Amino acid sequence: MSLDAAETSAPLLRRRADADWPAMLDLWVAAWRATYPEIDFDARRGWLTEQVEKLEAQGAATLCLFAGAPLALAGFVVIDPQTGWLDQICVGPAFTGDGCGVKLMAAACALSPGVVRLDVNADNMRAIRFYERGGFVQIGRGANTLSGRATIMMEWRAQQ
Protein backbone atom coordinates (compact mmCIF):
# COMPACT_ATOMS: atom_id res chain seq x y z
CA MET A 1 0.00 0.00 0.00
CA SER A 2 1.43 3.42 -0.89
CA LEU A 3 0.50 6.79 0.49
CA ASP A 4 -0.17 9.69 -1.83
CA ALA A 5 1.66 12.98 -1.42
CA ALA A 6 -1.18 14.49 0.59
CA GLU A 7 -0.76 11.84 3.29
CA THR A 8 3.00 12.20 3.75
CA SER A 9 5.19 14.96 5.15
CA ALA A 10 8.54 16.04 3.79
CA PRO A 11 11.42 14.68 5.88
CA LEU A 12 12.97 17.13 8.33
CA LEU A 13 16.65 17.06 9.27
CA ARG A 14 17.84 19.14 12.21
CA ARG A 15 20.28 19.24 15.12
CA ARG A 16 19.36 17.22 18.19
CA ALA A 17 17.33 18.97 20.87
CA ASP A 18 17.20 17.83 24.49
CA ALA A 19 13.54 16.85 24.01
CA ASP A 20 14.69 14.26 21.41
CA TRP A 21 16.41 12.00 23.97
CA PRO A 22 13.48 9.66 24.76
CA ALA A 23 12.73 9.01 21.08
CA MET A 24 16.43 8.69 20.22
CA LEU A 25 17.05 6.14 22.94
CA ASP A 26 13.94 4.12 22.06
CA LEU A 27 14.88 4.14 18.37
CA TRP A 28 18.51 3.16 19.10
CA VAL A 29 17.42 0.25 21.30
CA ALA A 30 14.86 -0.96 18.73
CA ALA A 31 17.34 -0.76 15.84
CA TRP A 32 20.08 -2.63 17.67
CA ARG A 33 17.64 -5.17 19.13
CA ALA A 34 16.54 -5.98 15.55
CA THR A 35 20.19 -6.60 14.58
CA TYR A 36 21.50 -8.29 17.75
CA PRO A 37 18.53 -9.58 19.80
CA GLU A 38 20.83 -11.42 22.20
CA ILE A 39 22.32 -8.15 23.55
CA ASP A 40 20.48 -6.07 26.18
CA PHE A 41 20.60 -2.63 24.59
CA ASP A 42 18.11 -1.26 27.12
CA ALA A 43 20.93 -1.59 29.66
CA ARG A 44 23.13 0.59 27.39
CA ARG A 45 20.84 3.63 27.24
CA GLY A 46 22.98 5.47 29.79
CA TRP A 47 26.12 4.68 27.82
CA LEU A 48 24.64 6.15 24.63
CA THR A 49 23.52 9.32 26.39
CA GLU A 50 26.97 9.82 27.94
CA GLN A 51 28.75 8.98 24.67
CA VAL A 52 26.73 11.44 22.57
CA GLU A 53 26.98 14.22 25.18
CA LYS A 54 30.76 13.70 25.45
CA LEU A 55 31.19 13.78 21.67
CA GLU A 56 29.01 16.87 21.31
CA ALA A 57 31.05 18.65 24.01
CA GLN A 58 34.13 17.89 21.86
CA GLY A 59 32.53 19.36 18.72
CA ALA A 60 30.50 16.51 17.23
CA ALA A 61 27.10 17.17 15.70
CA THR A 62 24.03 15.03 16.22
CA LEU A 63 21.49 15.32 13.42
CA CYS A 64 17.97 13.91 13.74
CA LEU A 65 15.86 12.93 10.75
CA PHE A 66 12.09 13.04 11.09
CA ALA A 67 9.88 11.37 8.48
CA GLY A 68 6.39 9.96 7.98
CA ALA A 69 3.00 11.41 8.66
CA PRO A 70 2.87 12.62 11.29
CA LEU A 71 6.59 13.30 11.47
CA ALA A 72 8.40 10.94 13.82
CA LEU A 73 12.06 10.35 14.55
CA ALA A 74 13.28 8.06 11.77
CA GLY A 75 16.98 8.11 12.60
CA PHE A 76 20.00 10.06 13.71
CA VAL A 77 23.70 10.41 13.05
CA VAL A 78 26.56 11.58 15.27
CA ILE A 79 29.66 12.86 13.46
CA ASP A 80 32.70 14.95 14.37
CA PRO A 81 33.19 17.40 11.48
CA GLN A 82 36.82 18.04 12.52
CA THR A 83 37.98 14.44 12.37
CA GLY A 84 35.32 12.88 10.15
CA TRP A 85 34.61 10.20 12.78
CA LEU A 86 31.05 8.90 12.51
CA ASP A 87 30.28 7.45 15.92
CA GLN A 88 26.60 6.58 15.47
CA ILE A 89 24.18 6.22 12.59
CA CYS A 90 20.84 4.72 13.44
CA VAL A 91 17.62 4.21 11.49
CA GLY A 92 14.51 2.89 13.18
CA PRO A 93 13.20 -0.49 12.03
CA ALA A 94 9.99 1.11 10.70
CA PHE A 95 12.07 3.31 8.38
CA THR A 96 14.59 0.76 7.11
CA GLY A 97 14.70 0.77 3.32
CA ASP A 98 12.98 4.17 3.04
CA GLY A 99 16.14 6.12 2.15
CA CYS A 100 16.56 7.53 5.65
CA GLY A 101 20.03 6.02 6.06
CA VAL A 102 21.11 7.54 2.75
CA LYS A 103 19.81 10.97 3.83
CA LEU A 104 21.63 10.73 7.17
CA MET A 105 24.86 9.61 5.52
CA ALA A 106 24.66 12.43 2.97
CA ALA A 107 24.24 14.92 5.81
CA ALA A 108 27.23 13.44 7.65
CA CYS A 109 29.39 13.62 4.51
CA ALA A 110 28.30 17.23 3.98
CA LEU A 111 29.40 18.14 7.52
CA SER A 112 32.74 16.41 7.03
CA PRO A 113 33.32 16.90 3.31
CA GLY A 114 36.84 15.48 3.07
CA VAL A 115 36.60 12.13 4.78
CA VAL A 116 34.25 10.07 6.96
CA ARG A 117 35.46 7.06 8.96
CA LEU A 118 33.50 4.59 11.05
CA ASP A 119 33.63 1.16 12.65
CA VAL A 120 31.03 -1.47 11.80
CA ASN A 121 30.56 -4.91 13.32
CA ALA A 122 32.23 -7.39 10.97
CA ASP A 123 29.19 -9.70 11.09
CA ASN A 124 26.71 -6.92 10.24
CA MET A 125 26.61 -7.58 6.49
CA ARG A 126 23.54 -5.41 5.89
CA ALA A 127 25.36 -2.38 7.30
CA ILE A 128 28.59 -3.19 5.45
CA ARG A 129 26.71 -3.42 2.14
CA PHE A 130 24.99 -0.09 2.90
CA TYR A 131 28.34 1.62 3.50
CA GLU A 132 29.91 0.05 0.42
CA ARG A 133 26.99 1.26 -1.75
CA GLY A 134 27.74 4.73 -0.38
CA GLY A 135 31.36 4.61 -1.50
CA PHE A 136 33.01 3.42 1.71
CA VAL A 137 35.98 1.07 1.54
CA GLN A 138 37.42 -1.19 4.22
CA ILE A 139 40.68 0.17 5.66
CA GLY A 140 41.27 -1.83 8.84
CA ARG A 141 40.03 -4.20 11.51
CA GLY A 142 39.53 -3.99 15.24
CA ALA A 143 37.17 -4.92 18.06
CA ASN A 144 34.20 -3.18 19.67
CA THR A 145 35.22 -1.89 23.11
CA LEU A 146 31.85 -2.81 24.69
CA SER A 147 31.03 -6.18 23.13
CA GLY A 148 34.43 -7.40 21.97
CA ARG A 149 32.91 -8.19 18.55
CA ALA A 150 35.22 -7.95 15.54
CA THR A 151 34.87 -4.67 13.66
CA ILE A 152 35.86 -3.30 10.30
CA MET A 153 37.00 0.29 9.93
CA MET A 154 35.58 1.86 6.80
CA GLU A 155 36.30 5.16 5.09
CA TRP A 156 34.65 7.45 2.56
CA ARG A 157 36.63 10.16 0.79
CA ALA A 158 35.23 12.98 -1.27
CA GLN A 159 35.91 12.73 -5.00
CA GLN A 160 38.87 14.90 -5.95
In short, what is this structure?
The chain has a domain at 5-112: Gcn5-related N-acetyltransferase (GNAT) (Aminopeptidase, 3-Layer(aba) Sandwich), CATH 3.40.630.30.
CATH homologous superfamily identity of the domain at 5-112: Gcn5-related N-acetyltransferase (GNAT)
CATH topology term of the domain at 5-112: Aminopeptidase
User: Biggest β-sheet, characterized?
Assistant: 4 strands, antiparallel
What's the number of extended β-strand segments?
7
Strand content: 25-35%
Give, in order, the helices and strands: EHHEEEHEHEE
Specify the CATH architecture of the domain at 5-112. Answer: 3-Layer(aba) Sandwich
Per DSSP, the total helix count is 4
Helix content: 25-40%
Mean pLDDT: 92
CATH class of the domain at 5-112: Alpha Beta
Radius of gyration: 15 Å
Pairing-aware structural class of the strands and helices? Answer: alpha+beta
Keywords: Acyltransferase, Transferase
Domain N-acetyltransferase: 11-159
GO molecular function, one term: acyltransferase activity, transferring groups other than amino-acyl groups
Organism: Methylocystis echinoides
Indicate the topology.
Elements: E1 12-15, H1 21-35, H2 45-57, E2 61-67, E3 72-79, E4 86-91, H3 100-111, E5 115-121, H4 125-133, E6 137-143, E7 150-157
Antiparallel strand pairs: 1-2, 2-3, 3-4, 5-7, 6-7
Task: Kindly describe this structure.
- The structure is a single chain.
- The protein has helices spanning 21-35, 45-57, 100-111, 125-133; strands at 12-15, 61-67, 72-79, 86-91, 115-121, 137-143, 150-157.
- The protein has 160 residues and is an alpha+beta fold.
- The chain has a domain at 5-112: Gcn5-related N-acetyltransferase (GNAT) (Aminopeptidase), CATH 3.40.630.30.
- The protein is globular, with a radius of gyration of 15 Å.
- Mean pLDDT is 92; it is low at 1-6.
